[in-house]
Amino acid sequence: MDLERDYDFWLLDLDGTLVDVEWSYTREVFDRVGDRLGREFTDREADILWNGLTGSRDQQLEEWGVDPGEFWNAFHDEEDPSVRAEQTYLHEDAAFVGDLDVPVGLVTHCQEFLCEPVLDHVGIGDWFDAQLCCTEKTGWKPDPDPVQSVMSDLGVGHNGHRGVLAGDGACDVGAAWNAGLDAIHVERVGHERRGLCVRGDYRVRSFDELY
């Protein structure tokens, strides 16, 4: 299987796909957010929200009776970019991205004030020819708008260009399909922990399985 030859461009998610963060950092952030909101988050709840295991994080928060706006304001206030970067590590099987000889773009829900320090720390900023950190203005995956924006920046479209988007969440697969791309789902957490099976054009536990 030679996916580099099969596709004219690649798009990738960041958190959970190319990089991950130590659990201790996640737990500490949710402890501080919980203190601010007057609500404790269990390990399972923190895992669900951090990894987006049930799909829409806002919908999940609402089901738990937590106001999404208040949560995200507190969450972003409690994230320290330098600490986040220091406790982030690169998945070894993601190294192939640096060797791709086609246009490569990054489409991530990681906010810009966190994304840049993380990219610098793990040394992958030069992997991408274009990147976008989703906001309310750009839209969030599975909305195709942020994907199509990066495609435009890369100078690729559907007129003869075949692309693929790789990510660890159902929203990544949805964004790929909504934008007319193939989707690779890399299952970092396992179906049992996720509680469901995310389907994509390719379903792998490691990018090594693609080569």
From TrEMBL:
Q: Name one Pfam family in it.
A: HAD_2
Q: Check the record and name the SUPFAM superfamilies matching this protein.
A: HAD-like
| TM helices/strands, residue ranges | none
Which biological process terms from the Gene Ontology are attached to this UniProt entry? DNA repair
Q: Which GO terms describe its molecular function?
A: phosphoglycolate phosphatase activity
Which parts form a coiled-coil structure per UniProt?
Answer: none
* InterPro entries the record matches: HAD-like_hydrolase_sf, HAD-like_sf, HAD_2, HAD_sf
Q: What is this protein called?
A: Phosphoglycolate phosphatase
What is the originating organism of this protein? Natrinema salaciae
